[in-house]
Amino acid sequence: MPDFDYTARELSGKQVTGTLTAGSEKDALVSLQTQSLFPIKVGMSESTRRQVVTGSRRVPGRYLTTFYNQLSDLLRSGVPLLRSLQLLEEQTSHAGLRFAVQDIREQVADGTRLNEAMRRHPKAFNSLTASMVKAGEEGGFLEDVLARVAAFNDHQEELKGKVTGAMVYPLFLMGVGSIIITVLLVWFVPEFAQIFGRMKEQGKLPWATTTLMSFSEGLQQWWYVIVPALIGGVVGLFYYVSESKEAQDKLDQWKLKAPGLGPIVRNLAVARFCRMLGTLLGNGVPILQSLRIAKDASGNVVLSEAIGNAADSVSGGKSLAIPLRASGQFSKEIVEMISIGEEANNLENVLIGIADNLEKYTSRKIDVVVRLLEPFLLLIMAAVVTFVIAALLLPILNMSSVR
After folding, report:
1. Does the pLDDT at position 54 exceed 50?
2. Which of 130, 75, 143, 74 is nearest to 100 (CA)?
């Protein structure tokens, strides 16, 4: 059971603090009252909070989609929220999701709002989902929001699957190519070292062969330094980017400006924002609240800040299209369509249409990029292998010509 830190007063008026174990915050309050203590402040201990966050595990999108759909269906059928959560807790086959649902059910039973309970499990339920659930709770259309979240989550998983599937073959080529080149340098090239030893002493080795032999020798002698350094560098860079907001901002800026990659990243981010904003507006959420929720759906800090500034302008009475155009992050065509949607009072449908068109266009563009990437990787592999073979054959041809 969780631990709770408390501050309370005794009958004498003396203030005391301590920690107790209870099933919930409500049980903790009852326990204090039985001890003739008047609670001033009761909250989950820091160690328990860490255990809750650590206990939460990332949940695959397909399990979350099923959970949202089932919870929406149960609520729409009139089943109370607590009973619905209990049923889903018993039915789910994913251990991480079961743990999260169990904790959410206990928190809701203690009077915590559903969105607040979800925020305790950021690895399972992201802030965007919690914000949408909050809007649904406040607007009285929670079951509709959950169905929309399920559809949005399913759509994103489908798009992610297409991108991942398109990158499988290029990544396979890179992996196989790296293995082939490593085998050549570590086991094949050293066999020629004794043959070229006399030519190396005389300084008659071609520069390509000298470079290849030096690289091979360095790899053999320092592999125990090079391999850990590469792994440590990748892990360290990943940790730095994930923990540093400044690094994340710079990475998001680079993604939007990267040649070839930038337009794809921008289109996908704008599509996510438009789909989420259209979904919220279609459910009757006010535009200011919708903008503050949907800005996180883009998944890019630069676009999120631009949308946040647009929300501030809208609160001042301006239309949405004007600040989006001023930000420079949205194309003229998209801004024009949003402007027309505002004038026609049909913004939610226009936004969904923009998202559909952008995703179709981007999907075709990804296919083209992947098709070009495959021969490009093959050319790189062929060039490296050709360099290795040429570097080994040149000295042999030179010896033959001298004889």
Report:
1. no
2. 130
Q: What percent of the chain has pLDDT over 90?
A: 5
Give CA–CA dist 26/4, Å, rounded: 11
More confident residue, 313 or 159: 313
Residues 6+ apart with CB under 8 A from 267: 358, 359, 361, 362, 365
SS3 48: helix
Placement of tokens 């991480």 in the chain: 96
pLDDT score of 46 = 65
Tokens in use for 202? 């005389």
How many Cβ atoms sit within 10 Å of the Cβ of residue 63?
Answer: 16
* Of residues 37, 45, 115, the one with CA closest to residue 81: 115
Helices and strands, counts by H and E, the chain: 18, 3
Cβ-proximal residues to 390 (8 Å cutoff; 6+ apart), any chain? 208
Q: 291 falls in which pLDDT band (50, 70, 90)? A: confident
Q: What is the pLDDT of residue 49?
A: 57
How confident is the model over 348-373, as a mean pLDDT? Answer: 85
Residue 48 confidence (pLDDT) above 50: yes
pTM comes to: 0.64
Structure tokens at 194: 């004794």
| Nearest partner of 388 among 226, 182, 170, judged by Cα | 182
- 28 forms beta bridges with none
In order of 194, 199, 393, 394, 398, the CA distances from 401 in angstroms are 20, 14, 12, 11, 5
Residue 119: its H or E element: none
- Beta pairing partners, 42: 6
Locate 188 and state its tokens.
Answer: 């094949």
The secondary element (H helix, E strand) that includes residue 8 is: strand 3-9
Phi, psi of 9 (to 5 degrees): -120, 140
User: What residue type is assigned to position 141 of the chain?
Assistant: F
Q: Please count the other Cβ atoms lying within 10 Å of the Cβ belonging to residue 178.
A: 12
Q: pLDDT at residue 50 above 60?
A: no
Pairing of strands 38-44, 3-9: antiparallel
Neighbours of 51 (CB within 10 A): 14
Count how many residues are written for the chain.
Answer: 403
Residue 319: name the closest of 349, 344, 299 by CA.
344
What are the CB-based long-range contacts (under 8 Å, 24+) for 174-182? Answer: 174/377, 177/377, 177/380, 177/381, 177/384, 180/381, 180/385, 181/381, 181/384, 181/385, 181/388
Q: How far apart are CA 327 and CA 320, in angstroms?
A: 11
